[in-house]
Every structure is written in C-alpha cells, then in structure tokens.
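Hello Y.,

Per our agreement to keep a running log of every chain we model this quarter, I'm adding this entry. I've kept the format consistent with earlier entries: sequence first, then predicted structure.
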Amino acid sequence: MEYKLLGKILGKIMILEGILMAAPAVVSIIYRESPRNIIAFAAPILVLILLGSLLQIPKPKRRSLYQKEGFALVALTWIVMALFGALPFVINGDIPNYIDAFFEIISGFTTTGASVVSDVTLLSHSTLFWRSFSHWIGGMGILVFVLIFIPESNDGSSMHLLRAESPGPTVGKVTSKMKMTTRILYLIYLGLTVMEFTLLVIDEPIPGYESDHVFNSLLATFGCAGTGGFGFIPGSMELYSAYSQYVMAIFLIIFGVNFGLYYLILIGKIKEVLRSEELRSYFIIIAISVGIVFFSLASSVSDIAGSYTTGEESFRHSLFQVASLLTTTGYTTTDFALWPSPAVTVLVLLMFFGGMAGSTSGGIKISRIVIAVKGAYVNVRKLINPRYVPKAKIEGKTIEEKTIYDVFGFFTLYLLILLAVILILSFDPVNGTAVKIASDAGEYTVTHGFFSNFTAALSCISNIGPGFEAVGPYGNFAGYSPFSKIVLSLTMIIGRLEIFPVLILFNHRTWKKI
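Predicted structure for the entry above:
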C-alpha cells in the first residue's frame, strides 16, 4: 500500500472540496447572512486547503495505483469529504449535533436525500444550497471530476478509480482516453443540468416564494440531476405547478439513463442506442409501473386517491413518483405512503431496482436485473436439459458466466447487508413510539415499527431518501439514535459505491505492505 500516493490524491480531493465549498459561502454573502454563516464555510475551506496542500509535499515511490488501492481510496474519499462537509452545519447552528450533520451531508453526497431536518424553513440559504449542491457533486462522482485534472496514466490507475466509483456492473471508456471520457461525461451532465434549470426558471414562481424563484429552481435542478432529493421548501415538490412537476419527472427519467448512450447520440450512433436492452427494459418498467399505479389510484375510493380530482392529476402523481423512486431521487408531490396497496407495492419494488448503470441513480441497477433474469432462465433450462449449453445473451453478445456469478454475488451481499441493517434498527429505542405526520392529506399518527425500519434501510442502501410510515415522504430520520444514524450513514456509502470499495477499505489485508 503506497500511503504517500493515497495521501497525495486525497489531498487533491480536499483542496477541491474547499473550492466547491466556496459556492455556499458566496450564497451566504449574497443573502446577507450573519457572519457566523460565512465563517461556517470559510473556516473549513481554509482547513481543507491547508491540509490538502500539506499532503502534496511527500513524494510517493510510485505513481500507479493497484486495484485494491483504487477501491479503498474511493471509499476513504467519500468518508473524508463527509467529515469536513458536515462542519458548516454544526458551526452555523443549523444542525448543531455533529452526528446529525454527518448523516445529512453523507445523504447529500451519496444522493440519498434522507434527512434529519424536521423543518427546512429554519435552515439558512447557504445550508440549503450546500445540501442540494452536494447532490450534484456526488451524482456523477467526485473522483470522476478529479480524473479530469490528474495526469493520464497507462497502467489502469484511472480505470480502477472510475470502476470503483461509477454505478453499475461494468465500466468502460466512451473514448480511448480516460481524461477525455470524464470530460465528455461531465459536459453532458452539465448540459442537461442547464437545460432543466432553464425550463424550471421560466415557470411562474411558487406563491410565497417569489424572491427565491431562481434559487429554488437551481436547488430543484441539483436534486434531479444528482437524483438526490433533499427538500428545500415544505412538502418537497408539492407546491410546484403541474408544468414544473412534469419537467422534473421527465428529467428524472433522463438522468436515470446511462450517460454513455447520450454520447452515442451525440456522435450519431442512434442504432446502437436503440439496441440497448437495458434502455428498453428501463422504459418498459416505467410504463408498466405508471400504468399499475395510475389504475390503482383511479379505481380507489380512498380519501387520498379521491383528493385527485382529475385523471391528469392522478397520472401526474403516478409518473412523478415512479420516476422519483425508480431513479432513487426521493422527491415527492404527494403523500404516496397513503396510496392503495398495489401502488405502494410497486413503489417499494422500484426502490430495489434503481436506474441504469452509468447514470446518477442508485439501487441495484436495471442491467443487473436483466442479467439476473437471463442467468436464472439459463439455469432453469440446464436443470430441464443437462445437455443444454448456456448462452445467455444481452444485445446479441453472450454474457460470460463470471459476469452472471458476479451479479448474483452482488445480490447476495446487497440482501445480507439490508437484513443486517434492518436487524440493527430493530434494537433502536424509537421502535414502538408514535410519530405524527402532517402531510397534504392532513395530520395522522403512525407507529415506528418494522416497515419503517425496513424502508429506512432500503432507502439508504439504494440511496433513495424517503421510505414509508415514520420515515415516509412527510417524515424524517431524526428519531433514530446516534448509533443507528452512523449505521445508516455507512449504509448510504455502501449503497452509493456498490458495496465492494467499502468492504475493501475495512479489510485489514488491504493495508498490508506488498
């Protein structure tokens, strides 16, 4: 393990975080917030730049990274960024408890959107900006951004970092040069971000928030682009117009698509895009899910469904919530926890799925679902006919058995970690307590129990945000104990980095000298 090399790259990350933290500091100045709010960002910026610069001094013996070092560095980077990123919340007093602040910023960087904040109207503009901006930073991946600036390597070091941080079972270059690949990915990311912001800002302001229209449009865009989901006004996206809700729903779906396909579109390879089996599966899942949820709402006689006065309103809520939960964003336009059982069941299943590999979404990923289904089908065929030669294919290419085994291995670890976290949460003192929920359907009380813990664990490992019952769209995670919040914070990192980098980081063999 080359510690000096890891320290050097980690130092660059710290300097970059300090530079990025200047943005909320500027917001604090623009909104003429108290000196304490400005200091809350200025002090960590100075510390990050100082420590990052000191880590550049030692000269490593080699400049190449082994695969295990790349994976460990990625996991360590996200933890260090959260440790410093939480400081502004504590210093300015918006989230005075450090564990709560750590949970909040981890939720931001991992694009989860789970929050311990009960009333977002009490937060300063700079805090609101930093929370939502962290979604945009973490959406594409901080190390993907760093790869733009560090020297190109011929030994695979850059690919190790990209593979460790990018979501999905496979990672490849869209061009022959890694640096060019990362630049193209970020330009596409930035371009789509600007497009959504433009479409949102031309809409009429939300009544009562006229002065913050541009600001709120930017935060909404950050959440959609990074598929995060932090609320910055009461009711998440409930107060936005139908036009803005449709815009956000469409862009949530867009950001849930593999960014490599957008590059193929830009260079005119439309046929290759249309051949993507994962893309077709993605849109089929969306269509079926929206259909089931819409039919469930339209045919229900419950109060919540009855409050949707038109078919268009029921369709809009169905489309928005399917897009939001499938892409693991977590934005809401209504209290979907009160929807009929078929709709709730579909939404819970979508929390497992996630978007496409190579997108900003969390979850298991559509590509893994497709590979798992094809792999299971092949195994069944082999049981029926032992002479059958397995030929599971995707997009006309044979899927290697190793890939199928890797996918099933990921499923196994994913479910084991999910069950372990649910078990840990079951010991939390919050279980059995009554929680009041004030939503668009009125105020009601739920008991914090198994379903709350199950969906809390699922939302964190899939990087979604809201769950159901006590942690539903109008609830929060504030009731959990500090230990449970630390466990859930680690779960969010495990989910964002797709398990293996975190396991490698905490494996003692990783740190042995070779």
